[in-house]
Amino acid sequence: MTLRQRAVRYARTKARVLVRLGVWSLLEAGQTFLAGYALARALDAGFLAGDVRTGLLWLGAAGAAVVVGAVGTGRVYGVVAALVEPVRDRLVTKVVRRGVRAADPGALSGLTQQVEIARDTLAGLVLVSRSFLFTAAGALIGLFSLDPLLLAVVVPPLLAGVALFAATLRPLARRQEAFLVADEALAEDLGAVGPGLRDITATGAESRVARSLDRRIGAELRTARSLARWSPARVAALALGGEVPLILLLVAAPWLLRRGVTPGALLGALAYVGQSLYPALQNLVHGLGTSGARLTVVLRRLLPLEREPHAPVKEASPATEASPATEAPSDTEAPPAAKPSPEPAAPALALSGLRFAYGPASEPVLHGLDLALPPGTHLAVVGPSGTGKSTLTALIAGLLAPDAGTTHVHGRPAPDATALRTLIPQEAYVHGGTLAENLTLHRPDPVPEDELLAAADAVGLTPLLTALGGPDARVDPTALSAGERQLVALTRAYLSPAPLALLDEATCHLDAEAEERAERAFAARPGGTLVVVAHRMSSARRADLVLVLDGARTVCGTHAELLAASPLYRDLMGDWAGASDARVG
What is the mean pLDDT of the chain? Predict the structure, then answer.
């Protein structure tokens, strides 16, 4: 059933309400009629005839009509509420039923926003449409009463303006709906991509995500231009129907006066057009032209389920499950099937003169940092809070651009090395679907089960994997603890083909034993290089090299070398350098 058929069927059920609406609207039509007629009689039979009393009486009658019309307007709002509120109640019922029976995630938005938009817009459309019909009727009857010749001047351009607006209404509505849909699609993609920029960069999906967003932006731009091309037609309709009659009345005034039209009648005609017809047409054009498309969009989203109330909910497949970063755009780039071949002699990570500050007036967080890590190196990054540990990983991952200096991963500049690194942030991401789908997210080809189980055992995921029921068990991210989500993310990164792993406090929710096991697994990956932002100083003891960030006094060396040479490192280690659970800010 189309929206038009629904509207006709609903109008039949509300016939009495529509009759009441028409009765009260007649009072407004009477006010419109007297606004011009009384002015004409006050001039012709009163002031121009030298009878001031008659002129004042007619003006008083026009003032009284305004009061009566105000009473009618007040009653109209109550009748409109009786017409619109049942529509709102039906929409609320449908949305709630959809949310309960079909577990629709959009039910909350439909209930709190779209239903209210539909109610307010429908009420506005009823008011402006009714106002135009009765105002036009009152004004045209008044013009005929003053002199039928006035209709010959006013009606043709008025009808032409209304016809032009009616002809452009459907194309405008279609283009406005297309623009709204394109705008919402772009906003949805941006809302998904924004929180997941780290994951997008870490998985090498920047180019594909950028292309997806570029298509969304291009689609919105095209719909906006198409809408803009049709918008002048709305302005032309308003000018033709509301302004041209005024001009014609003024231009034809001598001709009308010679044919018996009185000055009062001419003034009344100008009042009808300028004070009644033009404002009513303006409200109709802007109200129906803009709100009509908006109402159509909302109703099409709220009502389709009436045709299939018992349609089963299709379970999302792993390919369609949304993730905030790597899967939010439908065509996010998948990581390469095989580990890229790094240049033979290139360091796994090379930083040269790296400098970065958060703003031109801020103190640099990193000061000319130089560092070269051979492949297979295990580096721990430590330092007090605010010294740039997470900033460094963001620079290596390409999330931030340095103010000076260069970053190379296996010989490639950081922006071009997305496939050579994987970043595991503190807040681990787990999506719905099976555990295997979560673990193999960075692998486009199927992963043999024995490889997957070996990775889970190496990182320490096996107890959780067993408890969930194996790789094919479905995962509820909300049911996992923060530490369990970190184990899933760590195993996923372990299976990634990227040779450089960046752990930015990625084990902060694990106990010391689980953290050690995970770090040793990454350090032992064949051909793998590990950079760990440590939150326990025990990570530094296990690393091949330790980078101590402290502004301009940044130093790098082995655990033993730094104990001997760096007072800050000794302070971070505490009184007992062997404390495996000493924490750093």
Answer: 79
Give backbone dihedrals phi and psi of 421, rounded to 5 degrees, phi first. Answer: -140, 155
Report for 26-35, 245-254, 363-372, 537-546: range of highest mean pLDDT: 245-254
Amino acid at residue number 270: L
For 234-245, letters b (16+ CB in 10 Å) and e give: beebbebbbbbb
Residues pairing with 352 in the sheet: 406
Phi, psi (rounded to 5 degrees) for 458: -65, -40
Q: Which of 49-53, 96-100, 397-401, 443-447 has the lowest mean pLDDT?
A: 96-100
Residue 503 sits at φ, ψ, to 5 deg, of: -105, 100
Residues 422, 335: Cα–Cα separation, whole Å: 10
**Residue 382's closest CA among 563, 576, 198?**
563
Exposure string of 350-381, with b = 16+ CB inside 10 Å and e = fewer, is bbeebebbeeeeeebbbbebebebebbbbbbb
Q: How far is CA 217 from CA 179, 222, 294, 482, in A?
A: 11, 9, 21, 36
90-94, 202-206, 324-328: least confidently modelled range: 324-328
Residue type, 9: R
* Side chain identity, residue 371: L
Q: Cβ distance 546 to 531 under 8 Å?
A: no
Q: Burial letters for 285-319: b for 16+ Cβ neighbours within 10 Å, e otherwise?
A: bebbbbbbbbbbbbbebbbebeeeeeeeeeeeebe
List 379's β-bridge partners, or say none.
531, 545
The single residue listed with the structure tokens 């994997």 is: 465
Q: How far apart are CA 217 and CA 182, in angstroms?
A: 8
- The distance from CA 516 to its chain's CA centroid, rounded to whole angstroms, is 42
Q: By CB neighbour count within 10 A (0-12 exposed, 13-18 middle, 19+ buried), where does 328 fall?
A: buried
- In the block, which residue shows the tokens 């509420």? 81
Taking the C-alpha atoms of residue 57 and residue 60, their distance in angstroms, rounded to an integer, is 5
Query: What stretch of H or E contains 533?
Result: strand 529-533
What tokens appear for 454 in the block?
């070996």
Query: Using DSSP, how many helices (H) and how many strands (E) does the chain show?
Result: 22, 12
Segment (H or E) for 63: helix 52-101
CB 318 within 8 A of CB 186: no
The token pair that represents 577 in the structure block: 């350098």
Read off φ and ψ for residue 58, nearest 5 degrees: -65, -40
Position 251 scores a pLDDT of 93
The DSSP-derived string for 404-422 is EEEEEETTEEGGG-GGGEE
The closest of 176, 283, 165 to 223, measured between CA atoms, is 176
Strand residue runs (E) in 328-434: 349-356, 366-373, 378-382, 404-409, 412-413, 421-424, 433-434
Is pTM beyond 0.90? Reply is: no
Assess contact for 424 and 487: CB atoms under 8 A. no
Do 335 and 447 touch, CB atoms closer than 8 A? no
What is the H or E stretch that residue 514 is in? helix 512-523
Q: Which amino acid is at 134?
A: F
User: Which residue carries 């960075």 as its tokens?
Assistant: 442
Question: CA 333 to CA 118: how far, in whole Å?
Answer: 39
